[in-house]
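Technical note accompanying the year-one report. For the benefit of new consortium partners, we illustrate the data format agreed upon in the data management plan: each record pairs a sequence with a structure-token string. No post-processing was applied to the example shown here.
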Amino acid sequence: MKPSIKILFTLACAYAITTASSFAQIYTFDEFGNSSGPGISPGVLQPDPSGGLPGLVLVYNLAFPVVTGDVALMEPGQPAPGPYSDVVRFWDPTGAPQSQIIFYSDVSAADPADSPADTGLPVQLIIAPTNPIYINEIGPEGNNGAIYTPGGAQGTIPGTVGLQYNIISDVPEPDTLALAIVGAGLLLFALKRRRQASVR
């Protein structure tokens, strides 16, 4: 390949990567109030702005408008509109630049509250302007979530078209996470010892 063609090819690849990354804004948030992405604040407990539940709920403030509506998360393999375990409510009834995400998570005797989002599910899902979106969680119980892209296969609303929302509905317990890290470290140590022994 000629040097000039190589340079053009490299520039084209760099342009494609830059263009793709500028359009794919990713917002991540979880049941503990942690968040990342431009224009999203950490979640805080406050009175439910949508009136979905009495009392305090986990709310993320956004610096951009969204289309109001609900995304219901179901356990893996459940058909829609099967029983759902979490509801992410995009809330912007006035169309203002400031909007909110409300994170509701189911709580029961078998699954007691262990995070700020565990306040129960709203009495009813928001139907207008269209039906709620139902998506399955991905990953094992205790460490799962969902990826929601408005305008994609799941539909055009709620949320903001062109953005990707990574919803983490179950965060591993600290003890489980620590055990997994220790186990991975021991496995790597054993593999390293085995390689050193085979080299000798």
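Partners are asked to follow this layout when depositing records. Residues 174-199 form the longest helix (26 residues).
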